[in-house]
Write a structure and sequence with these properties.
single chain, At1g61900_C, At1g61900-like, 376 residues, SPARK domain-containing protein, SPARK, 2 domains, binds 2-acetamido-2-deoxy-beta-D-glucopyranose
Length: 376
């Protein structure tokens, strides 16, 4: 963490988005407290495919219904779009209705007015998760974990049309740097389930990733290293990792490992339910977007003093910790994903200051402690 204050560590566009998001969240919070009544004229109804972007700031927060489920890693509040029938290529042979849970969730996380605002934190992580789950759904029929280029082109187009038909932004590929090739993971030498399972210690991978604890994973990652290990392993086709081909460390090697991570994600998606896989992927990306914590986390010296090994007694440490988080938490409404980022950021500040214990665990801190209880 470069800085103890989030304001100075996020810059440029990202900072702009954070400010907009904050403004918007404050707006909706304000409105919520006044009891929202949706007038018919306020509703968003689209009869045609969405073509452009709305200016997000022009949208009255009163049309945004409150997300009442705090356990989900934030489904942003979205207006009520009427969906229309998407135009499909007819060349992507997959049962899209079996994927409706994940597609609907993605469409709402990337809804037109919100996508540019929340791209990094919400929309793109969710789209990436959809890509992995889609690869698995497509490949499981014939034992593969990836698509070939032709199917990838057709399916990518179909996925984007279906998302748009459900109110998602049509700029997702640009917003999230996504291409059909993200469905092929072409440079990874292992593409089918049986080779994958011969090479990778699959029980270890499943154990590490079947239920990912948001708070623990960000501070003491378990699933992420297991994925990287599996990806390194298959990137060399199971041979000695430092053998002749696909040298890790070379530029080509890094691309291969990155594609192989996609293959590992796809395999995990096949083994886990859509819900489990999705929540695991969302936590993993939440841990990565660690600059987007809107709380001002100033010097936690009282916590450090109370929680450093030598002087620590659990009750005084926890009291200091609760008091610190309690006051910061009142600053602004924090979404669950942002709460993950705040928890990670604060955890690393404490570690740097010499707090070695897992004090979140010790003091029963969880994610909701980083966001306002009243909003639950
Ligand atoms: C959204 O709009 C449709 C059609 O107008 C309506 O049937 C549905 O109940 C609405 N959903 C919500 C959550 O308002
Ligand atoms: C597609 O999936 C849905 C939901 O899982 C299922 O009801 C339907 O029978 C499937 N259709 C085909 C053709 O397999
Ligand atoms: C797997 O099946 C899909 C169609 O269901 C096909 O396009 C693809 O080429 C197949 N892959 C392999 C490796 O057979
Ligand atoms: C998708 O592919 C593009 C270009 O190949 C790459 O920059 C991007 O990181 C990939 N996205 C994911 C989620 O792998
Ligand atoms: C797989 O991993 C588990 C635990 O992480 C370990 O006990 C086991 O020996 C490993 N299996 C193989 C074949 O390496």
């Amino acid at each position: 963490m470069e800085s103890s204050s989030s304001g100075s560590c996020v810059q440029g566009t990202v900072y702009h988005w954070v400010v907009l998001l904050a403004v918007w969240l404050c707006g909706s919070q304000h409105v919520l407290s006044q009891k929202v009544t949706l007038e018919p004229k306020d509703k968003f109804l689209l009869s045609d495919p969405p073509i452009g972007l709305f200016d997000p700031i022009e949208i009255s927060p009163s049309v945004l219904p409150h997300n009442s489920n705090p356990v989900e890693p934030l489904s942003p509040m979205y207006p009520n779009y009427t969906s229309y029938d998407p135009v499909l290529t007819g060349k992507c042979h997959v049962n899209f209705s079996a994927l409706s849970y994940i597609i609907d969730k993605t469409a709402s996380d990337c809804s037109i007015p919100l996508a540019p605002l929340v791209a990094d934190v919400i929309c793109c992580p969710q789209v990436n998760s959809l890509m992995n789950i889609f690869q698995a759904a497509y490949g499981s029929g014939n034992g593969t974990l990836v698509l070939n280029q032709a199917s990838a082109n057709a399916c990518f187009s179909d996925i984007m049309s279906i998302l748009a038909s459900k109110g998602a932004n049509t700029n997702i590929p640009e917003l999230c740097t996504l291409r059909p090739s993200n469905l092929t993971d072409a440079s990874c030498p292992v593409k089918d389930i049986s080779s994958f399972e011969k090479i990778v210690n699959i029980s270890k991978l499943i154990d590490a990733c079947s239920s990912v604890d948001p708070l623990k994973e960000c501070c003491r990652p378990v699933c992420q290293p297991a994925i990287v290990e599996a990806a390194m392993h298959i990137s060399s086709g199971g041979a000695n990792m430092f053998g002749s081909s696909g040298l890790p460390g070379s530029v080509a090697g890094i691309d291969i490992v990155s594609d192989c991570k996609g293959v590992v994600h796809s395999w995990l998606s096949m083994k886990l339910s859509s819900e489990e896989a999705n929540s695991a992927f969302r936590v993993l990306s939440g841990c990565k977007v660690n600059k987007v914590c809107p709380l001002e986390l100033d010097e936690p010296s009282p916590v450090v003093k109370a929680c450093r090994k030598a002087s620590s007694s659990t009750p005084s440490c926890c009291a200091a910790l609760h008091s610190y988080i309690g006051t910061r938490q009142k600053q602004i409404f924090v979404t669950n994903l942002q709460a993950i980022n705040c928890a990670t950021m604060f955890g690393s500040m404490l570690q740097k200051a010499g707090v070695a214990d897992d004090i979140y665990g010790l003091c029963d801190i969880d994610l909701k402690d980083f966001s306002l209880q009243g909003m639950r």
